[in-house]
Amino acid sequence: MRQTLLPGCCLIAAALLVLGCGNKAAENGDGAITGDLTIFHAGSLSVPFREISALFTQKYPGVTIKAEPAGTRDSARKITDLGRTCDVFGAADYRAVENLLIPDHADFNIRFATNEMIIAYTDESMAHNIITSENWHEILLQPDVIFGRADPNRDPCGYRTMMLFQLAEKHYEAPGLVAKLADKPGRQLIRPKETDLLALLEAGEIDYLFIYRSVARQHKLRVLDLPAEINLASQSHAKLYASAEVAVTGKQPGQLISLTGAPIAYSVTIPTNARNRTAAEAYVALLLSEEGRSIMARNGQQPITPARTLEPDKLPTALRALCE
């Protein structure tokens, strides 16, 4: 049964734009949206995007979705360095789109959801019965404790973890904490993206993992909440977060760019090399709709309502009513 794409008067109007004249160029003869839809997205978007994709294919059975989860920065380099094409790009950090894709590979960037840094663990994690939001840094430095984190150059969760370390050093008044956590010899695992470490945590190969709250919730892991001063989730602490700074690789080989801490915000864009813009616009419209926001919230990523962009004049007509 075909479902209404966007409930509410204003949202229905936006849906009509998606299904109407703005998409005729890429529709088939009977007005249906068809073809392949390639999505590059952050690993932490895998579960909600899987649900949104299932809903999308119910609405548009003529579309075949091909999703590729990876670290956000790795995903961007598929486009910039490898010349690959995709129709929808979902980033764990809106700044990755700004720094790596705009203006050469994308025209706009829509912030649509938030998240929070936490430490995930299990009932088998060493010292799980005594770890707290006040002593976690001491527990993780114990010789036998193993923790994992993502690669800062490949995934936002990686450089956000390094920012968290810097903020924690100040918050707990623990000089040298950043170096101790970053350089703990032989007891740390780094992977291209944080979701690559989930199996190791669940198998007991590592004790703790720096990851997003949403991913821990989706995988039913135990969660250690961190103070608002360091979890990169609080708008009221944005100025404090900005005191943390991490150098990561830039657009050009050998180039480094500095990123400062900021409240976590996910974004979505349609790259300029998209081959199926009609389906891409319909997918993003669904993501930003009440149905899409409900899926994001259910999976632990609070929607930004309305979604926000700094490039309103460059948005496809079908998406303008859904953004601020």
Number of strands: 13
Radius of gyration over C-alpha positions, nearest whole angstrom = 20 Å
Please give the domain count: 2
The DSSP helix count reads: 13
- Gross morphology: globular
Query: What's the CATH H-level superfamily name of the largest domain?
Result: Periplasmic binding protein-like II
Strand order in space, largest sheet: 2-1-3-12-4-13
**Major beta sheet summary:** 6 strands, mixed
Give the topology string: H per helix, E per strand: HEHEHEHEEHEHHEHEHEHEEEHHEH
Short description:
The chain has 324 residues and is α/β, with parallel strands linked by helices. It has 13 helices and 13 strands. Residues 1-26 have low confidence and may be disordered.
Structure explained in plain terms:
The chain is of the alpha/beta class. It is built from 13 helices and 13 strands. The chain has helices spanning 9-19, 46-59, 72-80, 94-101, 136-140, 156-171, 177-182, 198-202, 213-218, 238-241, 277-288, 290-298, 317-320, and strands spanning 35-42, 63-70, 88-91, 110-113, 117-121, 147-150, 188-191, 208-212, 222-224, 245-249, 256-260, 266-269, 303-309. The strands form three sheets. A six-stranded mixed β-sheet has the order 2-1-3-12-4-13. The protein has a five-stranded mixed β-sheet with strand order 7-6-8-5-9. Helix 2 (46-59) packs antiparallel against helix 12 (290-298), helix 3 (72-80) packs parallel to helix 4 (94-101) and helix 11 packs across helix 12.
